[in-house]
């Protein structure tokens, strides 16, 4: 599966700072100091209704992580999946009376278009669940053969008790885990399971649903969590720098994925930091496909909204915070974009060297984008009020805002 084209990231004078970021597993900030190549895995979409503002906010957050790393003169190895076969996708295809493969291809193509318009840096490896199945099967067999998984009416389940570190990503109590498991695709009430929290690794073929030859597992399709584990281990290995996604993936997805990988390899942890973006609400409720309260990037673009303004609307909130999308949020972003573009259109201006360092400091401090935007606002206001004589300043501001914030002026 191919990703989307990469926009050029301008090189800035000097060197950026190492990223200090909130780690869900420890509950505090960690300083990430990768080697020459930083490794990041971000969970991708289930392509049945893309791309809403919650998606955009999540991928914006991890785009910023990459930009901070690139500014430290590192390379970035970024991997993202597409869950192109799963119950929600199949249910939507049945509801709409269309082929599930066509639905997945259509929505994935739209997602690529939105990511390109928003200037999100693409992954080096963009892998669909279906194409990952040949690598998933041996991992499930390994877990089963080692006693870390078991069969129940043809389905294969992972035993959470096989991982001594289970629970150390979310740090949730059992009651909350069970509630979230039921809410987010698990089946804690199924009779016969060793532990209600045990997740499915391999679903035996169901009538009327797609299935693949699973070798000794029998025909079926993979569970949700093992999909990402197979892709991450194949392309990044254990101990990669950041596992990313929305906060709704903390449990069960990232918890279970970590346990799968740690049990398979005997190594801990799967990722050095688990980083999660907040949820975006609309009309007081979390923006979600199931509720249908969605604001789509593609619709805003069709309405003539500049993608740079959409990105500035996302940047106006700290990535970890839950927030609400409103018309005012977008109007403020449109106005800000206009001010910034007017400021950099002049032939000279106030020195921007200090601004570049302010941007670097704000972003290295747990991706503090509101502080970063405020710094550019101050430079633009000074440019409007007093101007300056530095002929290189407007160009430097444009390059810095592009390189670090992904906004083209």
UniProtKB/TrEMBL annotation:
- Specify which residues bind Zn(2+) according to the UniProt entry for this protein: 43, 228, 253
SUPFAM superfamilies to which the protein is assigned, alphabetical: Nucleotidylyl transferase
Identify the keywords attached in UniProt to this record, alphabetized.
ATP-binding, Ligase, Metal-binding, Nucleotide-binding, Zinc
What are its E.C. numbers?
Answer: 6.3.1.13
Q: State the free-text cofactor note.
A: Binds 1 zinc ion per subunit.
Catalytic activity field? 1D-myo-inositol 2-amino-2-deoxy-alpha-D-glucopyranoside + L-cysteine + ATP = 1D-myo-inositol 2-(L-cysteinylamino)-2-deoxy-alpha-D-glucopyranoside + AMP + diphosphate + H(+)
Question: Which enzyme class?
Answer: ligase
Q: Which domain of life is it from?
A: Bacteria
Residues covered by the tRNA synthetases class I catalytic domain: 39-334
Q: Which InterPro entries match?
A: Cys-tRNA/MSH_ligase, Mycothiol_ligase_MshC, Rossmann-like_a/b/a_fold, tRNA-synt_1_cat_dom
Q: Which residues bind L-cysteinyl-5'-AMP?
A: 43-46, 58, 81-83, 224, 246-248, 280
Could you give one GO CC term from the UniProt record?
cytosol
Q: Where is this motif: 'HIGH' region?
A: 45-55
Has keyword Nucleotide-binding?
A: yes
Q: Identify the cofactor(s).
A: Zn(2+)
The sequence motif named 'KMSKS' region is recorded at 286-290
GO molecular function terms attached to this record: ATP binding; cysteine-glucosaminylinositol ligase activity; cysteine-tRNA ligase activity; zinc ion binding
* Entry-linked CDD domains: Anticodon_Ia_Cys_like
Motif ('ERGGDP' region) on chain = 183-188
The question of whether Nucleotide-binding is a record keyword is answered with yes
* A GO BP annotation: cysteinyl-tRNA aminoacylation
What does the subunit comment say?
Monomer.
What is the documented function of this protein? Catalyzes the ATP-dependent condensation of GlcN-Ins and L-cysteine to form L-Cys-GlcN-Ins.
The cross-references to PANTHER family, in alphabetical order and at most eight, read: CYSTEINE--TRNA LIGASE, CYTOPLASMIC, CYSTEINYL-TRNA SYNTHETASE
Q: Which family does it belong to?
A: Belongs to the class-I aminoacyl-tRNA synthetase family. MshC subfamily.
* Protein name as catalogued: L-cysteine:1D-myo-inositol 2-amino-2-deoxy-alpha-D-glucopyranoside ligase
UniProt organism field = Streptomyces sp. R44
């Amino acid at each position: 599966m191919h990703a989307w084209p990469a926009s050029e990231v301008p090189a800035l004078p000097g060197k950026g700072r190492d990223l200090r970021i909130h780690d869900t597993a420890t509950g505090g900030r960690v300083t990430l100091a990768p080697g020459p190549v930083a490794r990041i895995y971000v969970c991708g979409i289930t392509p049945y209704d893309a791309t809403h503002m919650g998606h955009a906010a999540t991928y914006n957050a991890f785009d910023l992580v990459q930009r901070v790393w690139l500014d430290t003169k590192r390379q970035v190895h970024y991997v993202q999946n597409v869950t192109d076969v799963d119950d929600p996708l199949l249910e939507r295809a049945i509801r709409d009376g269309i082929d599930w493969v066509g639905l997945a291809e259509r929505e994935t193509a739209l997602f690529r278009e939105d990511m390109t318009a928003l200037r999100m840096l693409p992954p080096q490896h963009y892998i669909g669940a279906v194409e990952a199945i040949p690598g998933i099967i041996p991992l499930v067999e390994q877990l089963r053969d080692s006693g870390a998984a078991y069969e129940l009416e043809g389905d294969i389940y992972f035993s959470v008790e096989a991982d001594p570190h289970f629970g150390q990503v979310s740090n949730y109590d059992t009651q909350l885990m069970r509630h979230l498991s039921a809410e987010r695709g698990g089946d804690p009430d199924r009779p016969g399971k060793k532990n209600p929290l045990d997740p499915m690794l391999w679903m035996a073929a169901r009538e009327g649903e797609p299935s693949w030859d699973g070798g000794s597992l029998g025909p079926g399709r993979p569970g949700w969590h093992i999909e990402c584990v197979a892709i991450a281990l194949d392309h990044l290995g254990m101990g990669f720098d950041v596992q990313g996604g929305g906060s709704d993936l903390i449990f069960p997805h990232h918890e279970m994925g970590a346990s799968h990988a740690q049990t398979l390899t005997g190594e801990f942890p799967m990722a050095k930091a688990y980083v999660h973006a907040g949820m975006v609400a609309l009309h007081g409720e979390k923006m979600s496909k199931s509720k249908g309260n969605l604001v789509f990037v593609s619709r805003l673009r069709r309405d003539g909204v500049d993608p740079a303004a959409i990105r500035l609307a996302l940047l106006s909130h700290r990535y970890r915070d839950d927030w609400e999308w409103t018309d005012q949020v977008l109007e403020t972003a449109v106005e800000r974009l206009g001010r910034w573009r007017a400021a950099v259109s002049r032939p000279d201006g106030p020195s921007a060297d200090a601004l570049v360092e302010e941007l670097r400091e704000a972003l290295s401090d747990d991706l503090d984008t509101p502080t970063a935007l405020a710094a550019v606002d101050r430079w633009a206001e000074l440019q409007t009020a007093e101007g300056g004589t530095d002929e290189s300043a407007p160009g430097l501001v444009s390059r810095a805002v592009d390189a670090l914030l992904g906004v083209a002026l």
